[in-house]
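W.,

You were right to be curious about this one. When I first looked at the sequence I had no strong expectations either way, so I just let the prediction run and decided to look at it fresh. Below is the sequence, 232 residues in total, followed by the output.
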Amino acid sequence: MRIAIALLVALWATAIHAGSLPEKFSAIYVVKKGFVDIGEVRRTLTPGANGRYVFESVTTTSGVAAWVAKGSIVERSTWIVKNAAIQPLEYFYERTFGKGKQVKLDFDWDKNTVTNSVNKDPWVMPLEPGTLDKLIYQVALMRDMAPNKRDYSYKIADGGKTKIYQAVVLGEEETETPAGKFHTVKITRVGDKRGTTLWCAPKLNYLPVRIEQTDDDEFVAVLKSVDGIVAK
């Protein structure tokens, strides 16, 4: 069950165009294992001071999962827009169930370094131009998605090294969710051992409305509600 709850946060894990995203929004997802609800994910984008933005994901367990592993996973990315591109400043992750875990990444673009701290044990790695963190690349994907574009690639600071996250478009589908029925673009991560697939709705600025992940088990997150994004 611990692995199942950890996967809740990974379900979303995939240059900026003016006006492609609202200044702020919130989205709530129901997470299911089979036909059973096991948790909820709340994602919010909010503007901060000095041109900064904060994108946060909070996952909480519910139902049977809460009996086994009550707790939460919080991910937070603080970032700015510079030269029409997303530039992360700080990434934070905290898991409160099980043994618990805390991760913090500080991006120093003047020195081109990232300081990684896992449970407050820090080390420094080189920072390549255009690098994102594991959470904010999902906003970059929403902003980058466009008609007729078939593949996407991002450099991600992850686990003390720079990794390449790649995704390809599989096609288009009509997708039912508790928030309604949407025409979606189906996209999947390449080389992702967890088998992550997203259904992104163009009318909601390519916000994912359904996410599936297949590891040892299959987990699905479906959009329950969204605020701040008006369907086009």
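Here's what jumped out at me. The longest strand covers residues 161-177. And, maybe more interesting for your project: The chain has a mean pLDDT of 86.

Coffee later to discuss?

I.
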